[in-house]
Amino acid sequence: MSFKNFKVVPKMIFGRGSFAQLDEVLAEERKRDDDFVVFLVDDVHQGKPLEGRVPLKAQDQLIWVNVDEEPTTKQVDSLTEQVQAHAGKTPVSVVGLGGGSTMDLAKAVSLMLTNPGGSAMYQGWDLIKNPAVHHIGIPTLSGTGAEASRTAVLCGPERKLGLNSDYTVFDQIIMDPELIKDVPTDQWFYTGMDCYIHCIESLEGTYLNEFSKAYGEKSLDLCREVYIDDHPEKDDKLMMASFMGGMSIAYSQVGACHALSYGLSYVLGYHHGIGNCIAFDVLEEFYPEGVKEFRQMMDKHNITLPKGICKDLPDETIAKMVKVAKSLGPLWHNVYGDGWEDKVTDELLTGLYRRI
Ligand SMILES: NC(=O)c1ccc[n+]([C@@H]2O[C@H](COP(=O)([O-])OP(=O)(O)OC[C@H]3O[C@@H](n4cnc5c(N)ncnc54)[C@H](O)[C@@H]3O)[C@@H](O)[C@H]2O)c1
Ligand SMILES: [Fe+2]
After folding, report:
1. Residues 154, 224: one domain?
2. Can you give the residue ranges of the Fe-containing alcohol dehydrogenase-like C-terminal domain (predicted)?
């Protein structure tokens, strides 16, 4: 048996107002007068106060990114070309400012600036050959754990799969809880539940170990303070929960909910957060306590999920989702342990999807 050699984010700043330190952090990367920085910023912030706080110098490039659809390899390739065309040289840092989608775009662009060919070539594990350009993640929406992980999830021509590598990990993250205060309730809930579900899947899984347990348990406590206790410092707590949930799954694995959710997302286009919520709601047999508490949280925040989505879908559409869900071996291995292949049948998965 060999153990994972987990690359963690080497530098992080945490605290209210810490976004103001971005300029200082970048100053260390800017060595020559014409060195430039690329800011990939979620366009939800366009025209908002945050826009004026981006420490942009004359030679820098600010690109507003739209994440109405989750990131694609095509989008990454076109952003990379845009950056390459900016100054005829490589930027000294790529900053991603937004939710999981924007952070993943920044990770992917920083990798594609130093690795030849299109990003779809690198969907998989450890296919990246060259170190990325220095890259910084700054969440304005918390839950995915993308700030902590070694993947950048992309929808490609054939599948939704991340660029998983040690080089994908951010060189720096800045976690400023003030940046998430205006997220609309539904989105705050869906993305926050991504974190809650990471914890449940990690803690209930066969891959669990003391490292993942330490992060997962603490993250779960923080989620409860946020979504049940309505703690006055809930933004700080959710931001930390997201990071710790990411750390937990990085050294274990996600489970049944993420497997179903990937199918929903690939075939029907549901976004990660809401897709997870919809899938989790039919998984009481897998995660009885977790699903019960999740429903309490939904009630408390008046969240209603779409129902009956898959009930009347053609068999072949369900079969496509079943295929995606079934292909995620490590997730099912985490759920059932050895011999998962016999347990994860088409009937089981079809039955679950039909209830969604
Ligand atoms: N890399 C990883 O480890 C990892 C893990 C889980 C999920 N993901 C990926 O992350 C993506 C989902 O990320 P997400 O759930 O954070 O959502 P997101 O980044 O897709 O954003 C969701 C919505 O929230 C808006 N938003 C972001 N910040 C806001 C703010 N401060 N105020 C108001 N609106 C704001 C965005 O504009 C968008 O409309 C998916 O593509 C998923 O595949 C990656
Ligand atoms: Fe997730």
Report:
1. no
2. 190-289
Q: Which of 43, 72, 187 to mutate to test the pocket of ligand 1 (most atoms within 8 A of CB)?
A: 187
Tell whether 207 is covered by a domain.
Answer: yes
**Is any ligand 1 atom within 6 A of the Cβ of residue 141?**
yes
Whether ligand 1 lies within 6 angstroms of the CB of 37 is answered as: no
Looking at the structure, tell me whether residues 140 and 272 fall in a common domain. no
Q: What angle do CA 318, 67, 10 make, to 5 degrees?
A: 105
**Residue 138 lies in domain:** 11-180
By most ligand atoms within 8 Å of CB, the mutation choice from 9, 19, 40, 42 for ligand 1 is 42
Whole-structure pTM value: 0.97
pLDDT in tens, 50-76: 999 999 999 999 999 999 999 999 999
Q: How far is the CA of 103 from the centre of ligand 1 (A)?
A: 8
